[in-house]
Design a protein that fits this description.
With about 400 residues, the chain is an alpha/beta fold. The chain has 2 domains: about 5-45 and about 285-395, Aspartate Aminotransferase, domain 1; about 60-285, Type I PLP-dependent aspartate aminotransferase-like (Major domain) (Aspartate Aminotransferase, domain 2). Helices cover about 40% and strands about 15% of the residues. The protein has helices at about 5-10, 15-25, 45-55, 70-85, 100-110, 125-135, 155-160, 180-190, 225-230, 255-265, 270-285, 285-310, 345-355, 380-395; strands spanning about 35, 95, 115-120, 135-140, 165-170, 200, 230-235, 245-250, 325, 335, 340, 355-360, 360, 370-375.
């Protein structure tokens, strides 16, 4: 059967591919340590499950309004007002099928063919493909360790051109594990004043910040930032609800209405009874989030320390999300186990084949010198995997 050029142009997600491969090897009885997972290793809190089960038993199994049930949109609006200093009405909020869907649908709603999208690297692996599917063009803004892998106001100003339509911001960042400070975001917002550049602020990891890191929503910085920003968030990471597929977008009314129209023809509504679980998460989830956050903070600090102790590996301390993003390029050019290592892809392939450790190559995120390791796993697994990595690099 013929397949479309559109589908042929989109590669599979490398993060999902790595996780799938690790699971396949484990099913064959191979002892694989996987650092590929982009999901918490904790179960969804029971009270959230109970709320969804109760809704299911009460017959909440029918279509809902496309943008979500009114109770959930109100709960999201209350959350954004109390926690993020963002005054959105429920009508300015749409519930999507996970934050990945939020990103895709947002771009479909606001971008036209030929529009230019500024995409700081490292970027989440799905961003370039959603830009492409919207008919737009991605302009990658390169970064390095000298700025903590963050773009600068000067760099942003220089990148804005006549075709620039959108800037994608992701803080806390996947894959980088870094977070923009309030002052850094304010400086970027200042650059955008007087332009027509929209912003998608992907804030899915907002609850997972460490040390003295302060999270701030980009749209809360000023009226100007508010008017140009679509705020994307969801329940997958903070509430360990990855499989529930519950995300949301908040922003200017005209953009949300456009997303509503698109969604009505694409997926209709998010799962009805799952929406009631999301309400429970917003109302009673703080204690569970904090317990999980503390464990992630300890794991991230430990993993970064272990990585930095390996010769030729340099890792910035993560301040958010649950990833370490070390630079391993000092090992490029070497031959390890008979394999020449010239890229992050070579590194990742040889590591899983020779040492049974699964990581995601940084090239998938626009940073060829790096690799991504998730610490959404036990301390025991972290030490086991880093031991193997260190031994492998000493070959």
């Amino acid at each position: 059967m013929k397949t479309s050029k559109r589908a042929q142009s989109i590669p599979p997600s490398e993060t999902i591919a790595v996780t799938t491969l690790a699971k396949q090897l484990k099913a064959q009885g191979i002892d694989v340590v996987s650092f590929g997972a982009g999901e918490p290793d904790f179960d969804t809190p029971q009270f959230i499950k109970d709320a969804a089960i109760e809704a299911l038993q009460k017959g909440q199994t029918k279509y809902t309004p496309t943008p979500g049930i009114p109770e959930l949109r109100k709960a999201i609006a209350d959350k954004l007002r109390k926690e993020n200093n963002l005054n959105y009405t429920p009508e300015q909020i749409i519930v999507n099928i996970g934050a990945k869907h939020s990103i895709y649908e947002s771009m479909q709603a606001v971008l036209d063919p030929g529009d230019e999208v500024l995409m700081p690297a490292p970027y989440w692996v799905t961003y370039p493909q959603t830009v492409k599917l919207a008919g737009a063009v991605a302009k990658v803004l390169e970064t390095d360790a000298s700025t903590g892998y963050k773009i600068t106001p000067k760099q942003l100003k220089a990148a804005i051109g006549s075709k620039t339509a959108l800037l994608i911001l992701n803080s806390p960042n996947n894959p980088g594990g870094f977070t923009y400070s309030p002052d850094e975001l304010a400086a970027l917002a200042e650059v955008l004043k007087g332009t027509d550049v929209m912003v998608i602020s992907d804030e899915i990891y907002e609850k997972l910040v460490y040390g003295d890191t302060k999270f701030v929503s980009f749209a809360s910085l000023s009226e100007d930032a508010y008017s140009r920003t679509l705020t994307v968030n969801g329940f997958s990471k903070a509430y360990s609800m990855t499989g529930w597929r519950m995300g949301y977008t908040a922003g200017p009314s005209n953009a949300i209405k456009a997303m509503d129209s698109l969604q009505s023809h694409m997926t209709q509504n998010a799962v009805a009874f799952a929406q009631y679980g999301a309400i429970a998460a917003l109302e009673k989830g703080d204690n569970d989030i904090e317990k999980m956050r503390q464990q992630f903070e300890n794991r991230g600090s430990h993993m970064a320390k272990r990585l930095n102790a390996i010769e030729g590996v340099s890792c910035t301390q993560p301040t958010g999300a649950f990833y370490c993003f070390p630079d391993v390029s000092a090992h490029y050019g070497r031959t390890i186990g008979g394999v020449k290592i010239n890229s992050s892809g070579d590194f990742a392939q040889a590591l899983i084949e020779q040492a049974n450790v699964a990581i995601v190559p940084g090239g998938a995120f626009g940073c060829q010198g790096n690799i991504r390791l998730s610490f959404a796993c036990s301390m025991e697994q972290i030490d086991k995997g880093i031991d193997r990595l260190e031994k492998w690099l000493k070959k």
